[in-house]
Sequence to fold (138 residues):
Amino acid sequence: MPSNSARDQAALLFANETFYRAFADRDTTLMSAVWADREPVTCLHPGWPPVEGRDAVLQSWHAILTGPASPDIQCLHAKAGIHKDTGLVICYERIGQDFLLATNVFIRSGNGWLMIHHQSGPAPDPAVNSPPPRRSIN
Fold:
């Protein structure tokens, strides 16, 4: 039997997958169910100004999911971490031939894990195993 930690991590990854299922299926009802309704929520879509508050976040997703240019998306290489009642998932998003790197933050609730923040931005192809860029203080 898996430990609570393993179960919690599996449940967190399932919540993250549910978010991407809602996105891929353009399911606005499921997308609404993924987001917390009693906590402040925020979303940073690539190229958009910050979106704050549940109503504004859900309106932004409605515009994306019902728009003519709604992208096909796939979540890859999701890695989860949990600290108390906060869950963090970092993953790649593949949209066509392009990749984004996403951070998804969840809180534990009586209904499982609910999203409170999503942010994504351009990233290199995850298959390319290049070392991180060298940085200099000077």
The chain has a mean pLDDT of 90. The helical segments are 4-25, 28-34, 54-66. The radius of gyration is 16 Å. The longest helix spans residues 4-25.
